[in-house]
Amino acid sequence: MQIGYARTSTFDQKAGFESQIEKLGKAGCEKVFSEQVSSVAERQQLTLALDFAREGDALVIVRLDRLARSTRDLLEIIAKLEAKKVGLRVLDFGGTEMDTQSPTGKLVLTMFGAIAQFERELMKSRQREGIERAKREGKYRGRQPTARRKLPEIVSLKEEGLTPPEIATRLNLSRASVYRLLKEART
After folding, report:
1. In which domain, by residue range, is 169 found?
2. Whole-angstrom distance, CA of residue 78 vs CA of residue 85
């Protein structure tokens, strides 16, 4: 049985999500598990798909980045599939289809997973370097605390007789932030 799995990180990626489901249907998937969650969140539908798969089945995905968040994650998923004697098909693997039920497919998938993780680490490193450079040049200050900017409003509403929970609701802040800032304002 061909079992499809489709995922996007956000609900805003509707076209990409629908495209994945359509491609999985055209690839002959009899059952499709789909979800719209970040890869770092708990992926319940992926867990269900892995549990559902039986010996001789194949888990089908459109692209590798829809399945795993890192090489380690990918290898863990492949290990689960192998333990159940379930294959993995990637429909768009650099313009070609790839199937782990062949030794070449397994090798290529592992190598591409490692390269993808390497690229991600390089990007994060360049981002950190850019932030450090911007800080040295005085161009980067980070995100300004939202609650602190609203301190005058917090104090004004408190003087009007509102309670901290009411202030928090009105200004869309956490109660803890309101209490902390009111305490700081008194000292």
Report:
1. 146-186
2. 10
User: What single letter denotes the amino acid at residue 152?
Assistant: P
- If asked whether residues 39 and 105 sit together in one domain, one would say yes
Question: Identity (one letter) of the amino acid at 141?
Answer: R
Tell me whether residue 9 is one of the annotated catalytic residues: yes
Distances (CA, A) of 61 to 96, 119, 127, 142: 13, 21, 30, 38
**Does 31 lie in the same domain as 101?**
yes
pLDDT digits (tens, 9 = 90+) for 55-65: 999 999 998 88
pTM above 0.85, yes or no: no
Q: Which of 47, 110, 53, 49 is nearest to 85 (CA)?
A: 53
Whether 131 is covered by a domain: the verdict is: no
Of the residues 9, 19, 34, 70, only one is catalytic, namely: 9
Lowest mean pLDDT, pick from 57-61, 114-118, 164-168 = 114-118
Residues 115 and 154 in one domain: no
> Mean pLDDT in the chain?
87
Nearest to 62 by CA among 87, 36, 26: 26
